[in-house]
Specification:
By secondary structure, the protein is of the alpha/beta class. The protein is built from 16 helices and twelve strands. The chain has helices at about 50-65, 80-85, 100-110, 115-120, 160-165, 170-175, 195-220, 225-240, 255, 280-285, 320-330, 335-340, 360-370, 380-385, 385-400, 405-420, and strands at about 30-35, 70-75, 95, 130-135, 135-145, 150-155, 185, 270, 290-295, 305-315, 375-380, 430. The model is unreliable at about 1-25 and about 40-50 (pLDDT under 50). Keywords: Signal, Transport.
Length: about 425
């Protein structure tokens, strides 16, 4: 029977790893950890309206098809729990990692198994964008993608945005200029509060300076106190200064802030959030929301054809027949179909064979279409070493609390950058579709 665990999962839970079966036929068990944790519902039972429920539906289908039992454990802090299991010598067979830099850590320590022969040399071309290659070998399989370069609004309050959304950042700033509290902003996201602010900085940087400079920054080659970075933080300051965003943004949950758009007297008008926010909008204001792509700066010209994404990537930590079978299943069409249907059309993929028309409603179809654009760049804080990411999270919170000394803040971030060894940085290119 699969054990499903809530938000609090201590590292000791991984101490009793499952031994691989001597029989090469994959009929035993496979242990899996991921960041999706089922939360109790109002009646004390497990809620099925969660990201965890969609992933569990995929695992259930895998069990039915193979006879392999899945021992799934959910935790919001995959990195810490995985590290504990690896250090104890009892890692899970398979882990779904929300931070790409963690892959590199375990490749260097030889704790992660390559997937080249698991997925086969004759794998279909539509799978290629899902493969994460390090040092010439495949170590990760992207199974779930969150497009982040999205700006949301209430359609009944902002009909002009439906007719003609801002084509540049400067147009967006002008649109918001005449509105009291235009931006919904919430930094609360335990245990990693601050990442909604890093998403802002990343999107601004990507759409101001382009993919090549963005890659140099995420690889640790661009100083934090560079002119490019200062301009981006100053642009964010225009969004967050007094009266321009949600009051008490430091204490407001990221999934709550945008709901103010739908109040009888709107508390804010625009929300910069990834595709995950649709679940909350559907509950609060079904049929009353839409989005437009985060626009480029006028200095770059062109249209909004660059999208920041976050990925959940599967890695294999124990090479067993059962783990291999699960990896192959997650790479297949049936897993993507089950995940898409069980998530209500909110599980997205880099697989080239997925038709946006297969999604159930106009909003989810348009989100899927953003993944067919020219350039997709991975979340910068997911690529950075853990120490740099933690400092980045703290910096956005500090800047919101006291924006007066940006220069000193950026110098502190650069001090962290300079102390990190070169081999800890992950240099993954943006994806060209």
């Amino acid at each position: 029977m699969r054990r499903r665990i809530g938000l609090l999962l201590i590292p000791a839970l991984l101490a009793g790893g499952v031994a691989a079966c001597a029989d090469p036929a994959p009929t035993g068990r496979v242990t899996v950890i991921a960041s999706w944790s089922e939360a109790p519902g109002n009646d004390g039972t497990e809620s099925r309206d969660t990201e965890a429920a969609a992933f569990v539906a995929v695992l259930d289908e895998f069990e039915r098809r193979t006879g392999i039992t899945v021992d799934y454990r959910g935790t919001r802090d995959v990195s810490q729990v995985l590290r504990s299991g690896v250090d104890r010598g009892s890692p899970p067979d398979v882990a779904v990692l929300p931070r790409l830099n963690d892959l590199q850590t375990y490749v260097h320590s030889r704790k992660l198994h390559p997937l080249d022969d698991v997925l086969g040399a004759d794998r279909r071309p539509d799978l290629e964008p899902q493969l994460v290659t390090l040092g010439g070998r495949v170590y990760g399989l992207s199974v779930n993608v969150v497009p982040k370069s999205l700006v949301w609004y209430a359609t009944d309050r902002q009909p002009a945005l439906t007719r003609r959304p801002p084509a540049t950042w400067e147009e967006l700033v002008r649109f918001s200029a005449g509105r009291r509290t235009p931006w919904c902003l919430g930094m609360g996201a335990p245990p990693l509060s601050g990442w909604p602010g890093t998403d802002w900085i990343e999107d601004l940087f990507l759409h101001r300076w382009g993919a090549q400079t963005y890659q140099a920054w995420t690889a640790g080659d661009l100083p934090w106190d560079s002119p490019q970075m200062r301009e981006v933080w100053q642009a964010w300051g225009e969004v967050t200064r007094a009266g321009r965003s949600t009051p008490n943004a430091l204490l407001t949950g990221f999934n709550v802030a945008g709901l103010g758009m739908f109040a009888e007297r709107p508390e804010c008008h625009l929300d910069h959030s990834g595709s995950y926010i649709v679940r909350d909008y559907r509950r609060e204001a079904p049929g009353r929301f839409d989005f437009f792509p985060f626009p480029p700066f006028a200095a770059r010209g062109g249209s909004a054809t660059t999208t920041e994404i976050a990925e959940d990537v599967v890695g294999m930590f124990e090479d067993t027949p059962e783990a291999r079978e699960l990896i192959r299943f997650l790479a297949g069409d049936r897993a993507r179909q089950v995940w898409r249907e069980a998530s209500g059309g909110l599980s997205f993929t880099l697989n080239r064979g997925t038709d946006p028309a297969s999604y159930p409603d106009p909003v989810s179809r348009r989100i899927a279409e953003t993944l067919t654009r020219d350039t997709l760049c991975r979340d910068a804080s997911d690529l950075m070493p853990a120490a740099m990411t933690a400092a980045f999270h703290r910096a956005v919170l500090h800047h919101l609390d006291d924006p007066r000394d940006l220069a000193a803040l950026l110098r502190e971030l650069d001090t962290v950058r300079e102390r990190i060894r070169d081999e800890e940085w992950l240099d993954l290119p943006c994806l060209t579709r």
